[in-house]
Amino acid sequence: MTILLVEDEPGLILTLTDRLVSEGFEVESATDGLAGLKAALGGKFDLIILDVMLPKKNGYDVARDLRQKGVATPILMLTAKGETIDKVLGLKLGADDYLTKPFEVLELLARIEALLRRSPNQTNGINAEVFRFGSVSIDFKRAEVSKMGERIDLSAMEFKLLHYLIDNRGNVHSRDQLLDAVWGYDAMPTTRTVDVHIAWLRQKLEENPRHPQFIQTVHGLGYKFAA
């Protein structure tokens, strides 16, 4: 498994890299936030270890940008700050766990192991138990959806439609295809039903429902999920 380490302290980079490699991981590193963001967007990683206090772009902004671009790779944040508000902010922006400096390497390894166990397909998010896009997090196993850490209530059909679009993200689906796949052949909805449910999902999940970033309309063809 490959870990991206985004950290600006040379001594910590060396120490962590040596230990992680000895544990069987491959490690790539970046020493500032912009380089870390570029690496995370351009590579396939199983986990990102992300320091908060970074040159050029702080870790909070990197985590937020990654989630907004649909990157679901688990993020373990490293912070020298112990205040609860800093930890909460990191988690709300998309981090999966945090560790306050200074820390024991054994504790870091335990956190890494726990995150990897919880995210079996973490490199692309498809079919993983948890999928993230923007400020939204979806736990498919529990059928729970949250936005900025707040629970969002979806109807059963809204959840099924969202699940189908995410599982087939990037593909364009006509209204009839969505009716067959989500509502089933025996149901009697109309294509207008799809439009209404799409509108409800956008209202609940998109930052700007009038100009959706993720649940997109492909004019003349149908809908797709883009991330």
Q: Which CATH architecture of the largest domain?
A: 3-Layer(aba) Sandwich
Task: Say how many strands there are.
Answer: 11
| SSE pattern, N- to C-terminal | EHEHEHEHEHEEEEHHHEE
- Biggest sheet architecture: 5 strands, parallel
CATH topology of the largest domain: the name is Rossmann fold
Oligomer: single chain
Number of domains: 2
The helix fraction, in percent, is: 40-55%
Mean pLDDT: 84
How would you write the strand order of the largest sheet? 2-1-3-4-5
The tally of helices reads 8
CATH superfamily of the largest domain: Response regulator
Short characterization:
The chain is α/β, with parallel strands linked by helices and 227 residues long. The chain has two domains: 2-118, Rossmann fold (3-Layer(aba) Sandwich), CATH 3.40.50; 158-225, Arc Repressor Mutant, subunit A (Orthogonal Bundle), CATH 1.10.10. It has helices at residues 10-22, 33-42, 59-68, 84-92, 105-118, 156-167, 175-183, 191-205; strands at residues 2-6, 26-30, 47-51, 75-79, 97-100, 130-133, 136-139, 144-147, 150-152, 215-218, 222-225.
What would you note in describing this structure?
The structure is a single chain. This protein has 227 residues and is of the alpha/beta class. The chain folds into 2 domains: 117 residues, Rossmann fold (3-Layer(aba) Sandwich), CATH 3.40.50.2300; 68 residues, Winged helix-like DNA-binding domain superfamily/Winged helix DNA-binding domain (Arc Repressor Mutant, subunit A, Orthogonal Bundle). Helices cover 41% and strands 21% of the residues. The strands form 3 sheets. Strands 2-1-3-4-5 form a 5-stranded parallel β-sheet, sandwiched between helices. Strands 6-7-8-9 form a 4-stranded antiparallel β-sheet, with no helix packed on it. A hairpin with a 2-residue loop joins strand 8 and strand 9. The longest helix has 15 residues. The protein is elongated. It starts with a strand and ends with a strand.
